[in-house]
Amino acid sequence: MTARDILELIKQHNVEMVDFRIVDVPGRQHHVTIPASEVDEDMLNNGIAFDGSSIQGFRGIEESDMVMRPVFETAYLDPFMAVPTLALACNVFEPNGNRYERDPRYIAEKAEAYLVATGIADKAFFGPELEFFIFDDVRYDSSAHSAFYSIDSIEAMWNTGRDEGPNLGYKVKNKGGYFPVPPTDTQQDIRTEMVQELIRAGIRVERHHHEVATAGQAEINFRFNTLTKTADTVMLYKYIVRNVARKYGKIATFMPKPIFGDNGSGMHVHQSLFKGDQPLFYKEGGYGNLSDVALHYIAGILEHAPAILAFSNPSTNSYKRLVPGYEAPVNLVFSKGNRSAAIRVPVATVTPKSARIEFRTPDSTSNPYLAFAAMLMAGLDGIRRKLDPTALGYGPVDKNIYELDAEAKRNIKSVPGSFEESLAALEADHEFLLEGGVFTKDFIYNWIELKRSTEVQPMHLRPHPYEFHLYLDL
Asked: Beta strands 331-336 and 341-345: pairing type?
């Protein structure tokens, strides 16, 4: 598309407002809105100025002037606004016209360019499966003298005894939410409307269903695409899901572990490489029909997993999901069809072109541009160095790892137990991310400092409500 195409779209749909959107370093969207009457070719081609010092992870106040330029192919007619509004995702630039190194979308694009430059492949396909919760009420507070959170859902197991005038039953049991039909599944219609809006936005949706946990856990799957386009889709997907939920008077959250004692929400990421039309991950008769290239790619991800998790599981809450017993993929091994492994090799209805690996550890608090780029860089490092996952002790393990005896488990490596450990791993192991200038040391150290100062350290400083249960009488 060109600037003229955008202007024609504005005219065709009687658009009154044009929304320019960027993504900050942690992965939140920000926007500025311009009346359509003020939008012309120059603005669309040259972008608009904004204050980078007010965007988390960007710049200090002494060098705050920045520019956002729209990516025309991301044009989206936003159905949630009261007047016709066209939304455009933007790239971030320096005032001198150079791309901004801390723009997450630029890092994703550089990862794709590096892939081509290696000669290994020319396309990396990513297909994430996002899980989320739809709640009826969320309240929380944290002050100097008190802290609490309270979540509620009409279908939650803890509401079997509540007077709902009347209580109609059919609550979802803990870990009992996978695929039940209505009336147990109370959210069929809201998920269907989410799907309709995703399709209207040009996203190819494959399925939707209730997920395992009680209290409204859901999953909507969309078709895979190349790395940056898939990350664009994830941002739009989260926007649509949240706003449809709000329309129903509910709240959608991608927080990995909002409920104690039940399954959390992950973002399983399917990945494959192609050179032209040739799939590089398939070899008939190989383990899971995988090629040597695919096995090297697996080894790269598992070898660098502790560092990758600093981007793919980038919250203190992420590691409350990554505990044994809740279908959490905490084991750094690969396996055919085994959901207790960090990397699963899908084997059902697989063709040469659909041969892929599934990295199950990530969650949706991740910034998709950064998480996908880190995964690709780790996989390419494994291919470049011809790493052997079996020789490195990563399997395959085709058994339920949670049921292995202590001796068998001893040789299986696990993911870091906390976000603090993952950040330390990234600090020690990030050379693979610097290849081709994809990530920079400035970005990596900025990320580590940002996360330590705004998330890890504040959590350490605050008393936890459960600590009163443990220690008040000591």
From this structure: parallel
Q: Assign residue 142 a region: left if phi > 0, alpha if psi is -120 to 50, beta otherwise?
A: beta
SS3 393: coil
CA–CA gap between residue 10 and residue 381 (Å, rounded):
44
Which domains are delineated in the chain?
A: 3-100 (3.10.20.70), 118-471 (3.30.590.10)
Where in the sequence numbering do the catalytic residues fall? 51, 129, 131, 211, 219, 268, 339, 358, 360
pTM (global) more than 0.90: yes
Mean predicted lDDT score pLDDT of the chain: 95
Crossing angle of helices 227-247 and 368-384, in 10° steps, is 150
Q: Is 271 annotated as a binding residue?
A: yes
Please name which of 445, 335, 305, 345 lies closest in space to residue 400, comparing C-alpha atoms: 335
pLDDT digits (tens, 9 = 90+) for 427-453: 999 999 999 999 999 999 999 999 999
Own/partner long-range contacts of 442-448 (Cβ < 8 Å, ≥24 apart): 442/101, 442/102, 443/101, 443/102, 443/107, 446/25, 446/57, 446/102, 447/25, 447/57, 447/310, 447/311, 447/370, 448/310, 448/423
Render pLDDT for 87-113 as a digit per residue (tens, 0 to 9): 999 999 999 999 999 999 999 999 999
Does the annotation flag 164 for ligand binding?
Answer: no
Q: Determine the Cα–Cα distance for residues 353 and 340; give it in Å rounded to an integer.
A: 25
Q: Say whether 431 sits in a helix, a strand or coil.
A: helix
Q: Flag whether 131 is marked binding.
A: yes
pLDDT for res 62: 64
* Residue 272 marked in a binding site: yes
Residue with tokens 């339920």: 400
Are the beta carbons of 135 and 152 closer than 8 angstroms? yes
The tens digit of pLDDT for each residue in 383-396 reads 999 999 999 999 89
242 vs 93: CA distance, rounded Å: 29
